[in-house]
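Standup notes, structure subgroup. Blocker cleared on the pyridoxal-5'-phosphate input:
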Amino acid sequence: MSIAQNLLKIKSSLPENVTLVAVSKTKPIPDLMEAYDAGQRIFGENKIQEMAEKWEAMPKDIEWHMIGHVQTNKVKFMAPFVSLIHGVDSLKLLEEINKQAQKNNRIIDCLLQIHIAEEETKFGLDEDELNEILTSSTFQEMKNIRIVGLMGMATFTNNQEQIRKEFTHLKTIFDKLRNGGSGRDALQCVSTKCVSTLSMGMSGDYQLAIECESTMVRIGSRIFGGR
Ligand SMILES: *Cc1c(COP(=O)(O)O)cnc(C)c1O
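Run returned:
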């Protein structure tokens, strides 16, 4: 099947409230344009340099999502245009995003990444670290970032029950953040709308993620083929 066919098939299978991020990392611009021409407007990349090059070359109605681990010293290269940064996992990084957003006269939307997998290697915060960030005065003084939700990656395994457990764990933390607790207060939410995004699910596990109430799936190889 073609990229356009893959895309449309996945799109038609998603519930209405689930947003599809087409993960186009490593793929050439013509491949992205095929998805664009089929109607896709949200693309996910994991390298800032590559994302910036694609942003420059492609139509300007695309929303670019940074889904990879972000190095502080590279934030400035995406601050003018990035729509959502998924993998934020430290106060230091938030400070830099806030600073660069301010320079560009923008408010940048971010997701905080929670560590839910068994693997040690995957980035992310635990629940205590999350609350520590949200209740810190440094965070509360930042005016140019908006935390719109959480992101997580499950363990790379065939064990469906384990993946389900990890996604459910993330959903629980997400609900706590939306519905109360110190974190919610710190976000100065006037409604649950401001914390609305739960980014979980990739090519191999997005159906399970949706069962666990994901609102945003990041799908690469099922659209563009293997990398
Ligand atoms: C690469 C990547 C994806 C997409 O992976 P696929 O298995 O190709 O769908 C999703 N999320 C993150 C964080 C990634 O790095």
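Discussed briefly. The chain has a mean pLDDT of 93.
Next: hand off to the docking folks.
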